[in-house]
Amino acid sequence: MTKKLYTGxxxxxxxxxxxxxxxxxxxxxxxxxxxxxxxxxxxxxDEKKCQVGDIVNIIETRPLSKDKRWMVVDIVEKAARGY
Length: 83
What we know:
- The chain is mostly beta strands and 83 residues long.
- The chain is built from no helices and 5 strands.
- It has one domain (5-77): CATH 2.40.50.140.
- Strands 1-2-3-5-4 form a 5-stranded mixed β-barrel.
- A hairpin with a 6-residue loop joins strand 2 and strand 3 (35-45).
- The radius of gyration is 14 Å and the shape is globular.
- The chain starts with a strand and ends in a 6-residue tail after the last strand.
């Protein structure tokens, strides 16, 4: 069995060792055949201290809690921190 691997953007980091990652995909509408965006939000286990705006790779893992079934593999791109 191969584990699923997705790339997404961190949209929330308010929980302890958990971030919410939004994964965007393009799908074709079944009737109108137009390409539309679909966004799925995953709760992801985070030991790498991601922050909002980071682009991360996530991988499927065993259930870690009621909602967490994903883990951060690596940070692809750090978010710009302009103050």
